[in-house]
Amino acid sequence: MNHLPLFLKIIESGILANPAKVASYTRTLAAKLADDGETKAAEKILRAVESANLPKTRTTGQVLSPQSMPVDRDSRFSLADESNPEMSELNIYLEPLIQKSVLEFISFVENAYLLTQAGVGVSPSMLIYGPPGCGKSYLAKYVAARLELPLLTARCDSLISSLLGSTAKNIRSLFEHASNRPCVLFLDEFDALAKARDDQHEVGELKRVVVSLLQNIDSLPSGTILLAATNHEDLLDPAVWRRFAYKMNIQLPSNESREKLIKQSLGHFCSSNVKAITTATDGMSGALIKQACEASVRAALIAGKEAVDDNKLLSKIAEIQYHDLIHAKIPDEEKIKKLKEVNNRLFTTRVLNELLGVSTGKISKILNS
Ligand SMILES: Nc1ncnc2c1ncn2[C@@H]1O[C@H](COP(=O)(O)OP(=O)(O)OP(=O)(O)O)[C@@H](O)[C@H]1O
Ligand SMILES: [Mg+2]
């Protein structure tokens, strides 16, 4: 059944006698149905909500629109962006154990009411950490899409205000905004708040920031799902670290994940040599693999080809992985030998020819010398 999580949320909010939440979830459902082309059903549902004259939110009496997103007092920049990620646009490839934990998290959130009734509360918070480009922000989108909730993304560096005392205020405004309706609050680049430690001139300021963060996390309503992502989990305050019920360590993609990502990124431009391409991308992040694949698809499209050129794709991969050596200011002969030394399998004569523009005959000669 489509939108089952939303139906369950509406039922749960009704049982909990929280009309503001019923209204908020119902409006989200109507918007989703309208997106699906079910405009008549969406209109009927909206009319039912409006005629019931339900309160708009529990605390302020107004549904907060993206326009009312709080801003930093000094820079006037918005403290977060709102989006509505769609499952159909997301294909995430995670290692089986991580995938299992993510699905467990989602299922606990979806069944929060049931679990709370049984006396085992759910703490809907997840910290996502790992190297750059491995899908941390993407995972936040995926969770919001699965839960069919709006995603409020805040870059933590933009929460840090140059005005003394305003960082804690920004955190409070953002959390208050997120508490007003069911949503996923995603604190991206989370370590920036921990890094404030070094940047702030006044020691007391850091304490205020961390204390404010902890207080705000603790008072989030269960309808607000808290996600945070960082590349530097070691910089986080231990008390902040402990607040997250789920901690996902997203690592560089495995062979299997890379193969799936390559096939998906190349689509019908997929070449016959996926295995070799997968091997060549060992050690690369999902973001870089995607970048290489998309560049080759673009080149194939412009050249009017039906599939990507394997050598061009391998060259792109090599270029990303060994950029410095490929562009080093050393003679071609020395460069070719060094590239062969670092990755004999990847730097075939044709890839070297593609990358350096040196003729295949000359490359063979150099390699045989
Ligand atoms: N595991 C993955 N599965 C599918 N796509 C992925 C994966 N990892 C990365 N990608 C692709 O790479 C893009 C960039 O990833 P994302 O921004 O989520 O990385 P990140 O871990 O948040 O990086 P950073 O630490 O730099 O913020 C995604 O939008 C997605 O297209
Ligand atoms: Mg990110």
TrEMBL record:
A GO MF label: ATP hydrolysis activity
InterPro entries attached to this UniProt entry: AAA+_ATPase (IPR003593), AAA_ATPase_domain (IPR050168), ATPase_AAA_core (IPR003959), ATPase_AAA_CS (IPR003960), P-loop_NTPase (IPR027417)
Stretches assigned to the AAA+ ATPase domain: 122-254
UniProt keyword annotations, A-Z: ATP-binding, DNA-binding, Nucleotide-binding
Domain of life: Bacteria
SUPFAM superfamilies the record matches: P-loop containing nucleoside triphosphate hydrolases
Keyword Acetylation: no
Pfam families: AAA
Residue runs in coiled coils: none
Entry annotated with the keyword Ribosomal protein: no
CDD domains registered for this protein in UniProt: RecA-like_protease
Entry's family note: Belongs to the AAA ATPase family.
Annotated protein name in UniProt: DNA-binding protein
